[in-house]
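User: For documentation purposes, I need each entry recorded in a consistent format: the amino acid sequence on its own, followed directly by the corresponding structure tokens. There are two entries in this batch. Please keep commentary to a minimum and don't merge the entries.

Assistant: Recorded as requested. Entry 1:
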Amino acid sequence: MAIAEPYIAPPIGRRFSGATRRFFAGSSIRNHLALGAVGLVVVVTILAPWIAPHDPKLPVGNPLMGPGTHFWLGTDEIGRDVFSRVLIGMRSSWWGAVIVIASGVIFGGLIGLVAGAAGGIVDTLLMRFTDSFLALPGTILAVALVAAIGPSYAHTLFAVSIVWWPLYTRIVRAEVRKLRASPHLEAARLAGAGRVRLAMRHLLPGAVPSTIVAASLDVSALVLVLAGLSFLGLGAPAPAPELGAMSARGVTYIFESWWVPIMPAAGVFLLAMMANFGGDALRDRIRDR
């Protein structure tokens, strides 16, 4: 009778290289380019204070100078470098959206996990609490909150975070309720696993892929919402370089100095487009696994 040889796990480096090959084999060139573009946006926004050639808050040239070799995107109405201001504005918009999504995933995901795992009256109460936020228009509620507590960048992020978490609650709850009836969860329950262990070890990991996809696709929407609030004057006060506020102040110069309002708007469009492409690529990647 032959004796089976013990299994020896491959070296760590070989396991990682195999995972890398499977990743690139399962994705299209479009997805590679999209994820690479998102990675470039992340790097540029992190290094923006060092990449910006001028101080974004101080005049460095004559007012309303056109794009050229010295000022790549021209100067605004008081002589500040538009390229530096757009770069810093893209940084605040991108990472502001990431902060809002992270808070929504943590808070909303926790409520969804508890509601889906507990069921019964706990589920009912938590979901009615969530529905009370969904019943109100999120953007209008955020505008009202910022107007009530005063315009600033931190207040804008806080107000948007208040109205953004219910989506993740519903996603996590739906995934958890679907996983509760799976055979492996029943086996873990029969083996003596408690509710906390079942929720953290078996239910929560199953909800992660759908939550990641929803969060990645939400970045573009949040960039637009934050830019819209800034356009309405509910963001950081001047001279803070916020894309929406820059476009709003530059509208009066659109015919004679088009770059003043158009370049910040182009920065918003670029961020939203890159976030959408990256979200689509990530969704395809997770779906193909």
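Entry 2:
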Amino acid sequence: MTTPDRVRLDPQTLRGVAHPLRVRLLGLLRQDGPSTASRLAERTGQSSGATSYHLRQLASYGFVVEEPALGAGRERWWRAVHRSSTMEAADVRSAPVEAEAYMRAVATEYADRVERWVGELPALPTEWDQSATLSDWRLRLTADEAQRLLADLQALIRSYRTDEPDGERPEGTERVILQLQLMPFLATVRPQSPTPESRT
């Protein structure tokens, strides 16, 4: 269900966002508020032509809109329409190619974020030493248990203050990113082996 704060991705909108740079641009606009193609180019290491093109593509699918009140001259400002995106299992099954492309773009962004954080780790003040982790746990669960675990984790996360561009920022708080992946690896499901024609 699409709301002012959240957009549900469907086969059509998945095509518009299933690109690593678009996922990154949309994430930055949601995280930090409106920006321009030039400013986003500096932050992503891309050309302003590339960021401008992908912002226009995001706009054509309804993910971002222009903010004319912020523009001066030819400078165009963009803002995210929604605070977050969701994708239901039914949408994944109805558009598996588009859903996989989108999830791979998201996974790339998550991996890049971890790389950036690891690079900044030596500069973290000591009071944050016990406030971060890069961990995984191997569990053996039923589908029902995995569903309950995910629901419990989501409820716990919702009990904490979120980071909004215009939200409450008490003294001493900093942006903390929590990435959550719950990944069932079923013994009966194996990745498809590439055919000889598809190998590069």
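Summary note for entry 2:
The first strand starts at residue 6 and ends at 8.
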